[in-house]
Amino acid sequence: MKILYLSGGAGSFICGTCVRDRQLVKGLEALGHDVTVLNLYLPWYPEASPADKNPIFFGGINVYLQHKWRFFRGIPQWMDGWLNARPLLKLIAGRAGASTPQDMAGLTLSMMKDRTGHQKKELDRMCRWLKRQPRPDVICLSNALLCGLAGGLRDALDVPVFCTLQGEETFLRGLEAEEQARAWETLRERTADIDGFIAVSSEYGRRMAERLHLDPEGIFVAANGIALDSLQGVAPPAEEISSGSTVGYLARMMPEKGLHILIEAFIHLRSQMTEDTNQPRLRVAGVVTKVDELYFEEQKRRIEEAGLGEAVDFLPNLPESEKHRFLQSIDVLTVPADATESFGLYVLEALANGVPVVGPDHAAFPEIFERTGGGVLVPPNDPQALARELQRILSEPDLRQSLGTTGRQAVQSEFGSDQMAGAVAEILAGKIERSPQLVVQERGLLEANR
Q1: Helix-then-strand count for the chain, H and E
Q2: 2-225+421-448, superfamily in CATH?
Q3: Which end of the chain is more exposed for a tag (fewer CB within 10 A), N or C?
Q4: Numbered ranges of CATH 3.40.50.2000 in the chain
Q5: Rounded CA separation 439/218 (Å)
Q6: Is the dihedral of CA 268, 269, 275, 278 positive or negative?
Q7: Which fold has domain 228-415?
Q8: What is the pLDDT of residues 28-86, one digit of tens each?
Q9: Which pTM value belongs to this model?
């Protein structure tokens, strides 16, 4: 099967969606499929990927200029090529994390509008390039924010278009209420251009079905997976090996991932264990972009004010190569993310290393914990409840080992990138008997789209 895969790049930091997409592409290629990857906006980070040999379309500089000024919507092709050049995009990639979703609201809405948006010229340019390449059997979009491209691509290539559902809620929640409503309405309109949706979890599929007025029974599910061999590496030095009392956090340091909830929980945990000879420690690792810096500094300040500076290690922008070493240095992982979380690769990464996970009882966490048996749920947005559960797990080594062992076995047998790729390939090839039936809201009635 020849697959065209479109995925936005982050340019200068490790993005969970990009990590998942890269591993999916590798898995599909390992199964013998021919995958052409086109990066949009910016390159994947780090580079050295199947997309490197192809042009970047909808380059971040170009689409911004076209959105802001009409002049750039009519510039010649050679100038477009220069603005979309990889060296230039790499140069400005450091600013990729400097914009909030609200900063990009107008551009986001424009990108959803198919050929009526300000980026029509970029869509036409990409379609012309694709027509000169071997025709794919199917197109897959990395997320629903790219649905504005589907109609033009399907018209140009006359092949089915599938769309992954992952991360849309978290991004759109950052918009003002009016713009958020417009974005969801536009996405609902664009669903008619999609032949099938693939959610990364059943729970997120149900949520997005409600958002987009789709039949939840018609959304395919292909759970995320990880490259298990990528989590093998050099063991940490003796001074980093945990003594059984280290809590870890491994995610982007932003409000949506709940780091502030963990900080408050850890302060409470320490106050409840003053007599314990083996005092808990906290290790915090993950991406910090420019827009996250104030939030990150605020969490560090709270720790210092609590007098716990010596008990906490902050490791911003931990290299991917150091992830295994980090996970080997903790005893339990928690990322108390908000209700928009569509999956959470960090859960699989921790369990693959035998580290149990404590997570909030909402979003995709109950589903993942039920399937892996390696996690414990706590009430969301409740630092004291989180502190109590962390204290229980840290004080019961047998429970820790049981959760970690069960979780590791489940991830190794069910959540490898090869299983993810196999499930996606089966969906794209149409081997599943039922086919998605899209349902749209029209004049107050639910009608089958086909």
Answers
A1: 18, 14
A2: Glycogen Phosphorylase B; (3.40.50.2000)
A3: C
A4: 2-225+421-448, 228-415
A5: 9
A6: negative
A7: Rossmann fold (3.40.50)
A8: 999 999 999 998 877 766 555 555 678 888 776 666 666 666 766 666 776 777 676 66
A9: 0.86
